[in-house]
Amino acid sequence: MVILKVMTSFCPVIILAAMLVLIPAIAAPAPEKPLFAEEYELKAAYIFNFTKFVTWPSTAFKDESAPIKICIPRNRMLEYAFSALTQKSSQKRRIEISGYENTKDSGNCHLLFFDEPLDSSIVAKVLMSVRNSPILTIGVSRDFVTQGGIIRFVTTDGRLTFEINPEAARRAGLEISSKMLSLAKIVRDVP
To answer: Is residue 13 part of a domain?
Structure first.
């Protein structure tokens, strides 16, 4: 009788302990990809396709075999998503991904991607410094294209779309295909 009484008083404790150990393992399986990897993979796919519809001047490359250098912020999730592009080529050039710590290292990029919304004054300063360089600038901040950026990713109702500033592309010496322009919302610089 005493043993039965002791067992029933420990039973809820044992069950609770088992639940605390087992439920997190069941409820939260180990992720195969980093958090938000799908969003970054989608952006990487868009960016890869952008390289097919943008023409850089021949002077943008050292020679005929030089790669298209895509510069992205050093970020584990971005690097994971963009790593698949390193085995691809576009316009007969292989794709090279390079991470940057700060945007001062942007001079040798063909495509410069700003993922996190940065301080507006920092973005404006970088965009001004590469304004006449053959660098395709892509960002996510609200005023990116009106500050002189070329392409901005926009997420609306769970869908990823993009805006293009054709004037900024012309200043950079880049030609954007009419097919790509037809898929985008066209935005102009703010005077």
So the answer is: yes
